[in-house]
Design goal:
InterPro entries: 6-phosphgluc_deHydtase, Dihydro-acid_dehy_C, DiOHA_6PGluconate_deHydtase_CS, ILV_EDD_C, ILV_EDD_N, IlvD/EDD_N. Its cofactor is [4Fe-4S] cluster. By secondary structure, the chain is an alpha/beta fold. The chain has helices spanning about 5-15, 20-35, 50-55, 60-65, 90-100, 120, 125-145, 160-170, 190-205, 210-220, 230-240, 255-270, 285, 290-300, 310-320, 325-335, 350-355, 355-365, 385, 460-465, 485, 495-505, 565-570, 590-595, and strands at about 70-75, 105-110, 150-155, 180, 390-395, 395-400, 425-430, 435-440, 450-455, 475-480, 510-515, 525-530, 550, 555-560. Bound molecules: 2-keto 3 deoxy 6 phospho gluconate and iron/sulfur cluster (SF4).
């Protein structure tokens, strides 16, 4: 099957646009490769003292580490008890060490990285640290791998900012092979749609707090990733279409023999693809322009999280690759929507997996020429083998072809009969700047609006107005001052139940913000990530109550319909809420806010090239 012409064209322009930065990145990785494996005594890079410190407490692995003849894996773990998705990771290092030893190598926990649960911080001050926790995770990953004792790395993390942060950090060590190790989704509890219904009733005062807590607790009921198709599960899809997982590992539940067998297989495979062997697969070669294009196609085909319109840009940047929202929009316009997983439908990832899951979807997209099959997958083959699904034949881990047709066409479909001819993610452009919108969760009737603006400087102000009963009629809800340099670009998902209530009452509404929404946000049209952000002179700072605003997701446009002379004459509103600069640790992230790029540049505070005369004002 030949490649779709748009996939070919977008890939070619990304390669051309990235030629110098990608070339420089690969040169740096080749230089790092020349140093590795740094751990053998013959290498001057690590002195005997360095080495002894590195294996002093390694017990039975000491001879292997001292001798430096077998591969050593650096484990970077995002374990903590706060994320249900990461809690199972606590015991994985023991399983990995034993598997590495059995395979003739060794494994050490190189370091841990922080992991924030956006579900716990949603709507609270902590959410203003969420986006920069990604960059913090990247920094912590680099600290862990900078011990330079490793021939490969296993990165254990699943959720929203954690996989992007781990990958951004590991790409600075792109000379190492890297395999991601997830724990998988929790089993299905109360459906996400039933949970959302109780939330809307609570928002209207028609459900008690006890009823709400009971619904939430039955939805989020155990170990594993939350079962909606938000950023965490979008991460799992990305790891498959980028070839960074063992095939089909994304949605196998934790605490099962198959999950443990996949973790062992990841360990064994990491040792097979080091520079010590004859199938060297460094991360720098796996994450190339084709893998990044695959990621954007996978996102569009499955209705993935809008957060990846930001994270993928930062990940690509870390690999020397430049992408933008025009690339994402062009690919999404030609990619059929194959999955209906909440918030894009009522099913959850367990249903999706049972229907044929990513194996079926990847096979369909390769067959349609929408995914590059020829990428250097960590499993040793290419994307065609990635589309296989793992199973246990007694105790033996094997892979088999996914079902030839979807086992549940209400959840998963082939390219011949998609849910929509186009994928879920769009770029908007107009006199308000540039923005992102996800239409896969928005009914066609709600994908455009022309209505007066109601302008707010915080999501709490919106909720206060709702409680005061002043959110009447059709309106565009503008929440500004929520960009990366303002307050860390929080998700405004706390608005979802309230906006859903208003829309269900028959009011035509939309959200317009320089902030983010959760991957779990859904049915209300939301033009988000507006760039430039309000505090950087962005147009949202000039908007006033009553201005007519038009958002048209299908046309890809959004504009303020205000007289040009009046618009130019307006003083931009000062949207900084300085109270949000301190408290809950926010005072520690001022450097990241000050250095953050725009949303379309990945809202990343890393890769800052300070000029000699640059003055950084210390608060
Ligand atoms: O997918 C993402 O981008 C997210 O950040 C999901 C958040 O964790 C939500 O906060 C969890 O969903 P809710 O229980 O509806 O709050
Ligand atoms: S999916 Fe989101 S809410 Fe669920 S554990 Fe992960 S970060 Fe927390």
């Amino acid at each position: 099957m030949s490649l779709h012409p748009t996939v070919e064209r977008v890939t070619a322009r990304i390669i051309e646009r990235s030629r110098h930065t990608r070339g420089d990145y690969l040169r740096r990785m080749d230089e790092a490769r020349a140093q590795s494996p740094a751990r053998t005594p013959a290498r001057l890079a690590l002195s005997c003292g360095n080495l002894a410190h590195g294996f002093a407490a390694s017990g039975e692995d000491k001879p292997a580490l001292r001798g430096g003849h077998a591969g050593n894996i650096g484990i970077v773990t995002a374990y903590n008890d706060m994320l249900s998705a990461h809690q199972p990771l606590e015991q994985y290092p023991n399983l990995i060490r034993a598997a590495a030893r059995a395979a003739g190598g060794s494994a050490q926990v190189a370091g841990g990285v922080p992991a924030m649960c956006d579900g716990v911080t949603q709507g609270r001050a902590g959410m203003e640290l969420s986006l920069f926790s990604r960059d913090t995770i990247a920094l912590a990953t680099a600290v862990a791998l900078s011990h330079d004792m490793f021939d490969a790395a296993l990165l254990m993390g699943v959720c929203d900012k954690i996989v992007p942060g781990l990958l951004i950090g590991a790409l600075s060590f792109g000379h190492l092979p890297v395999v991601f190790v997830p724990a998988g989704p929790m089993t299905t509890g109360l459906s996400n749609r039933d949970k959302a219904a109780v939330r809307q009733r609570y928002a209207e005062g028609r459900a008690t707090r006890e009823e709400l807590l009971e619904a939430e607790a039955r939805s989020y009921h155990g170990a594993g990733t939350c079962t909606f198709y938000g950023t965490a599960n979008s991460n799992q899809m990305l790891m498959e279409v980028m070839g960074l997982h063992m095939p089909g590992t994304a949605f196998v539940n934790p605490g099962t023999p198959l999950r443990d067998a996949l973790t062992v297989a990841a360990t064994e495979q990491a040792l097979r693809i080091t520079a010590l062997g004859d199938d060297y697969r460094p991360l720098a070669h796996t994450v190339d322009e084709k893998a990044i294009v695959n990621a954007m196609v996978g996102l569009a085909a499955t209705g993935g999280s809008t957060n990846h319109a930001i994270h993928l840009v930062a990940i690509a940047r870390a690999a020397g690759i430049a992408i933008d929202w025009d690339d994402l929009d062009a690919l999404s316009r030609v990619t059929p929507l194959l999955a209906r997983i909440y918030p894009n439908g009522s099913a959850d990832v367990n249903h999706f997996h049972a229907a044929g899951g990513l194996g079926f979807a990847i096979g369909e997209l390769i067959g349609a020429g929408l995914l590059h099959p020829d990428i250097a997958c960590v499993h040793g083959g290419d994307l065609r083998q990635q589309a296989m699904e793992p199973w246990l034949d007694d105790l033996a881990l094997r892979w088999r072809a996914p079902p030839a047709t979807s086992l549940d066409p209400s959840v998963l479909r082939g390219v011949a009969m998609p849910f929509d001819a186009e994928g879920g993610l769009r770029r908007l452009a107009g006199n308000l700047g540039r923005a992102v919108v996800k239409v896969s969760a928005v009914a066609p009737a709600h994908r455009s609006i022309t209505a007066p603006a109601r302008v707010f400087d915080s999501q709490d102000a919106v909720l206060d107005a709702f409680r005061a009963g002043t959110l009447e009629g059709d309106f565009v809800c503008v929440v500004r001052g929520q960009g990366p340099r303002a307050n860390g670009m929080p998700e405004l998902h706390k608005l979802t139940p309230t906006l859903g209530v208003l829309q269900d009452r028959g009011q035509r509404i939309a959200l317009l913000t320089d902030g983010r929404m959760s991957g779990a946000s859904g049915k209300v049209l939301a033009a988000i990530h507006v760039t430039p952000e309000a505090i950087d002179g962005g147009a949202l700072a000039r908007l006033r109550d009553g201005d007519r605003v038009r958002i048209d997701a299908d046309a890809g446009t959004f504009d303020a319909q205000v007289d040009a002379a009046e618009w130019r004459a307006r003083e931009p509103a000062r949207t900084i809420d300085r109270s949000s600069r301190t408290g809950m640790g926010r005072e520690l992230f001022g450097l990241m806010r000050a250095n953050a790029g725009t949303a379309e540049q990945g809202a990343c505070s890393l890769f800052v090239t300070l000029h000699e005369d640059a003055q950084v004002e210390v608060a």
